Structures are given as C-alpha cells and as structure tokens.
# Entry
Amino acid sequence: MRTVSNVVNGFDHVAADTRARVLQVIGELNYQPSELARSLKVGRSGLIGLMLPELDMAYFAELTRAFVEGGAERGLTIVIEQTNGDRERELAFLNRAATGALFDALVASPLALTVDDVASFSAEPLVFLGEDNFPGFDKVMVDNFQAAFEAVSHLTALGRQRIAAIGAEHTAHGSSSLRLDGYRAALAAAPSALPEIVEYVDNFHRPEGSAAMARLLARPDRPDAVFCFADSLALGALRVLRQADVKVPEEIALVGWDDIEDGRFATPSLTTIGPDKRWIAQVALSRIAQRLEQGALPAEELIAPHRLILRESCP
# Structure
C-alpha cells in the first residue's frame, strides 16, 4: 500500500518497473485518490464557506458565480449558505465553522451580525463583504458614498432639478445609509439648491421599487430623475413608468446600482453603478490564501473598483 501511495504522490524512490506496474493497475481499476484522506493528511479541505443574505437577488447570484469561478481557478470548492439576513442563522453559520465544519476559511456578507457577535471568533480566516466594521477582520467593500455621489452628480450635471432616491431603509444599514449620504451630498454640491425626495423601502426587491415609483408619480411635483439603490428597485420602477406612459429618460431619467444582467437587457437599458464583482471575489480569495499561507496578518480594508455605466435610461 505504501508503494502505491508513493507512486500516486510522485515520490522518486520507486523503481521504474514497479512504478509502471502500479500505474498499469491504477489505470485498469480506474483508481481515484481519496480527496478526504488527502485533506486530512494536509490539514486542508479545499472548502470555502460563503455566507450571503439572498441568493435570489441577482447581484448576489452574480457575485456567487464570481466566487465559484475564482475558487475553481485555485482548486477550491465554494459552499454557499443563505441566511436571509437573519442574525440567528448568521451566528449559526459562524458557530458551525468554529466547531468542526470542514472549511478552510469563510467569506461573509452579514446584515444582522454585531461587532460583539464576532469578537471572539478565531477559527478559520474570515473575510467580510460590505461596509460594516468588524475590527480585526479583513473587509472588502465598495465606496458606496463616492459611487452614489457620482451617480447623482451626473443627474445634476444634466440639469435635473427634482432628483428622487429609492432605497433608503427604515432600519438603517451600512450600504443604504452611505448611498443616502452620497445622494444628499451630491444635491448639496449642485449649482442651485435641490430638494431631497427620499422613498424608504423594506428591501431591495422589484415590488418595493414599483410601489415607491407609484408614490412618486402620484406627487403633484413628481421628480424628473430617480436614483435607485439597486437595479432590482430600478427595474420595478421602470415597469411602473412604462405602464404610466412616462418617457424614460426624456421625462424621468433613471439610474440603478449593481450592473446586473437584467438591467443591460431592459427597455430602455439601465444606467447603473457597476461594482467590480469579479474583483471582489478575487481579492477576498487572495486575502484568504495569504492568511492560510502566512498565518496572522494585520486586518485590511480593500476598496473594490466601481464605475458609472451610462445606458439608455440616463445617457
């Protein structure tokens, strides 16, 4: 058995004729080495846990694909956990990882975890996605304030005077709060004072965007531009605009956020903030690899590139 192991693992001290006979038998039996046994020997499973709130949100689905493809390039398998932003489920995922699950590392995009929830976590390398600050852990994020400022500044530069925002949340969260701050800063930086028109939502799904847009159209002073904090909200808003025979962008310009595939094929196609999802996945996985190879490292905040992508809804 040791001789077979030596051949499979490529050790040099096996006689040539013995190696040839072993390889012949391996071929005849279609033998495959046990990945579990190998992982136990090297102390690595090749599994990376990825915790996300909603897999049916197009942004997270596309982000997941970027992680799966990036993991495959490194010989890693990505294991997905959907939490729906529930704190107990987010905690349960971290606790399973800390008590023996075969993960080499974790990537987490939490909505409900607090600093105290993760302060004592010290098992696998853990990288957070998003703006929430967890001291001692790496964080990969988009500059939400700056990106929102750029999107709304584009609208003010076009001369739009009543720019609404759809996506502020009743329960403040890092990304939506920063996008709201960027929206307000761009209004304040406009050549003339512009009113703040904010529609709050409970989530970033299409129905919320539709309902918010219907409320905006019912106003006597309806907006001439709308900045949505997610493409899904913008797509919901776009349907209501089409049903009301409102011309986009002539009467109301529309800007989203995420650069999801649906937005590229909408009619009109959706102007949007495009975060580099592949960059996010690659950098998170690279940071994990560094920690696995080098051990403890100072925590880093890594800012993903983004760009304002102009399309038909707001050229």
